[in-house]
Every structure is written in structure tokens, then in C-alpha cells.
Task: inverse folding
């Protein structure tokens, strides 16, 4: 496993963990690593970037000193997966303030809309090396 962007996500959120599984399945180049906010690595990265890991309102993509959040992070993830997912890059045509407003509304209501797992999602054994604990 080589170093690369780390996606910080909520492993108890049904939508977030489904997205993590989607990324692992479609990231054929193994470009991304994932870290749940409930794990030590994910919580530390959230805190390092000024976000409370017990109540985050965003997804982060950390790539060295470059940090993406909200809709920019989502677009970077999907464009990073390659074809056909990179078509999500057209979302950049929508003004950032509008994209982020929609993203934050969904993020604030994620448990109500999609549900919350009673335990954190865990990766399949073959993907365990791509998920930081």
C-alpha cells in the first residue's frame, strides 16, 4: 500500500459507510486510503484540522498538506476513481457556496435520512490494509 490521499468518514453513518465501500470497490488503482472518525487515526486527523471527531459536519480528504472538505472533497474522490465516476467533476460548474450548502444540509441530517449503524462498519479482510485504524 503506497501513501496517498486519506478519506476521513463516519463509519456509523449508513450513507458514509456505503460510500466507503463504493470507494474501495471502484478505486482500482488503490489511490485512496480511508480512516473512520471513530478510529484513532481518523479522530486524530479530524482534530488536527480543527474538527470535533465526535460531531463532524464534513468529509475530509487529506493529501499531505492539501485538505479538501465538503463538496470539494466529494468531487475529488469521485474524479479520482477514474472513468466513469470522474464525470462528477462537472459539479465544479455549480458555485462552491451552493454545492457546500447542499452538502452541509445532507451532512447535518445524515442519520435522520439514511440511518445510523449500531456498530462501526468494518472493511472486508482484503481491504483492511486500505483502512487506517
Result:
Amino acid at each position: 500500500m503506497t501513501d496517498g490521499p486519506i478519506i476521513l468518514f463516519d463509519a456509523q453513518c449508513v450513507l458514509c459507510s456505503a460510500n466507503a465501500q463504493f470507494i474501495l470497490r471502484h478505486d482500482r488503482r488503490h489511490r485512496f486510503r480511508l480512516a473512520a472518525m471513530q478510529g484513532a487515526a481518523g479522530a486524530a486527523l479530524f482534530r488536527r484540522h480543527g474538527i470535533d471527531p465526535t460531531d463532524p459536519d464534513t468529509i475530509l480528504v487529506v493529501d499531505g498538506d492539501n485538505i479538501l472538505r465538503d463538496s470539494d472533497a466529494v468531487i475529488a474522490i469521485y474524479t479520482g476513481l477514474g472513468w466513469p465516476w470522474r464525470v462528477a467533476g462537472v459539479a465544479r460548474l455549480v458555485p462552491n457556496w451552493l454545492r457546500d450548502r447542499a452538502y452541509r444540509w445532507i451532512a447535518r441530517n445524515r442519520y435522520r435520512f439514511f440511518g445510523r449503524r449500531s456498530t462501526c462498519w468494518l472493511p472486508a479482510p482484503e481491504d483492511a490494509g486500505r483502512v487506517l485504524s
User: Anything to note?
Assistant: Strands lie at 6-9, 33-36, 60-63, 66-69, 131-132.
